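Hello Y.,

Per our agreement to keep a running log of every chain we model this quarter, I'm adding this entry. I've kept the format consistent with earlier entries: sequence first, then predicted structure.
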Amino acid sequence: MTILLIRLRLIGDVVFTTPAIRALRTRYPDARLLYLVESAAAPVVAHNPHLSAVIEVPHSRGWTRIKDDLRLARRLRAERCDLVVDFHGGPRSAWLAWASGARRRVGYDIQGRAWMYTDLVHRPRGLHPRHSVENQWDLLATVDAAFSGGADRTANRVEMMTRPATRASVDARLATYGLGPHDGNTPLIVLHVSAGNPFRRWPETAFADVAAGLVRQSSGRRVLITAGPSDRAAVQRVLSMAQGQAGDGAERIIDAQDFSLEDLRAVLDRSALFIGGDSGPLHIAATSDVPIVGLYGPTRPERSAPWRPPHLATASVDAGELPCRPCDQRVCAPGDFRCLTTIPSEAVRAAAERLLENGRF
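Predicted structure for the entry above:
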C-alpha cells in the first residue's frame, strides 16, 4: 500500500501534520508513506523516520509552476498511490491529489475543489477556536475509523528530528558563545523576532526590551536572536537596540540569524526558553521539551498553541479581547495592528521569568 500525504507549506502547518504521520505509520506499518512538501518547509519532515520518502516541490509561479506540476504529476502517477490525504486544501495541492491517479483521495469540501477528491471532510468556514492539528485529524478519521477518537497531545505530539552531525555542529558553535555541552549554569534563551507576514510581527522595540531585560536580570543568561530568511535585517535592528539597553550584558545578546531550521531544532534541545510569535519556529520549538512563551496577535492559542504534552511549560501572551480579533490576516481593519502593538513587553518578560524560575534559571 502506498499513501501520499500533501502539505505544501507553511513551516508551522507542516509541523502540525507530524502527529498524523506517526499515527498512520503505527496503523499501517508496512505501507510506503510519501510526503509532498515545498522546499522551504521540507526540513521539518526530511528526517522523519516514519516516512518512506519526502518529495520536494519548488515554490514556483506562472508558466514555471505549470511545467513543474505537470512533471510532478507524472512522477506521482508512477508512484501508483493507493491513498492520498491532502492536508493543505489549496488549488495546487487539490490538483496534485487528483493528478496522482490514486483510487482514494481524501480532502476538505472546499467549493471549486471538492470534485478532485473521492472522500470529503467538512471544514467549517470562518475562524473557529479549534486546534489545527484536530482539524487535520478529521481527515484521518475519514481514512480509517481507528482514528475517530481524535488526536492526543501526549501520544500524538508534534515532532521534528535532527541528525547527529547537525547536533555536533551546533554544539561546536554554542561553545564559541561560552556554552559547554548541556551547561545548566548558563541558560540559553532563543528569541525569534520575525514572522512570515506583518500580521504576526511583534514590534522590534518590544523584542529588544525583552532581550535586554532578560540578560540584566541574571548574569548567566545568553539570548540568541534569530529570524527567518525573509527578515534577516530584523536581527541586526533588534540586536543593536537590545545591546544598547543591556549595559554590561550586551555581549550576551547574540546574533544567530544564520541558523538553519534543523540547526534551530538542535539548539532548542539545549535551551532553557523559547520566545516568539505564532510562526514556524514557535511550532518547531513545540517539537522539543523547551519551555515556550508564545505571542498571539490575530490568531488565538486555542487554534495554534504548541501541540505537545500538557505537562511541558507553555505560556501564551496576547492583547486580550478585541472586536477585530481573530482575523483572516489579509487586511488590518483598524490599520494599526493593535492586536500585536498592545501586547506589553512587561507581560512577555513576566511570563518568561516565571518559566525560567520554574526551571531555576
